[in-house]
Amino acid sequence: MIQLDGIHRIFQIGDEQVHALNGINLSIDKAEYVSIMGPSGSGKSTLLNILGLLDHPDEGVYFLDGADVTSFPDEKQAQTRHDKIGFVFQFFHLIPRLTAAENIALPMLLAGIPPNIRHERTQQAMQDLGIGNRANHRPEQLSGGQRQRVAIARAIIMRPSILLADEPTGNLDRKSGHDVIDILEELNKNGIGLIMVTHDPDLGSRAQRQIKMIDGRIVSGAD
Ligand code: ADP
Ligand code: MG
Prior knowledge:
Blueprint: E1 2-13, E2 16-28, E3 33-37, H1 44-51, E4 59-64, E5 67-68, H2 74-84, E6 85-88, H3 100-110, H4 115-128, H5 144-156, E7 162-166, H6 174-189, E8 193-197, H7 201-204, E9 209-214, E10 217-220
Helix pairs in contact: 3-4, 3-5, 5-6
The structure holds adenosine-5'-diphosphate and magnesium ion.
């Protein structure tokens, strides 16, 4: 499903170059559950952003479902992202002035899905994630764990085949963090690919496969 060949990402800051990804080769099957671990600055988020088509590699090829997405024009990359990929972040990235239900429905609004279907799917997602009674709350009126559930509902509302999570429990207490992981693992059991960055070894070890990164390279778990 995912194949990366010789991926490099170099950030230029003034005169200095940061080689954030230094020759990444990686294959991930459909519906796999993979964790990515490594010290701060090792390139985990950069890798996830490239997998999620939020960033472009400077060198190398990314095949997604057999297509070379690195060669796609921007618009086709954006479409591919909308069709296939959901993203969950450490700091939720919800829109503050929208309610929970509106945040969840936003990707469907942008995709032109009719209001009755939007409403139905939003209700169902909120039920499934245990936030059915929070539809009209704005993010600031929700706990961290509830915000992350809203973010997960938004990430899966377009029924992506891959869910990318960058430290999804990093801003949560232990209990809420475990609840969020349970939800992500349940989604994976139902067939969605789960690729999760975490610095918590206990959480990371729950994945089928653990990828370890150091200095922009994968040091174990590449295949
Ligand atoms: P991690 O998520 O493992 O902590 P990152 O992927 O965020 O690491 O960063 C890897 C390296 O790339 C770091 O040295 C970081 O400072 C640098 N970096 C990441 N994003 C940018 C950016 N947008 N501009 C400049 N440097 C960046
Ligand atoms: Mg990071």
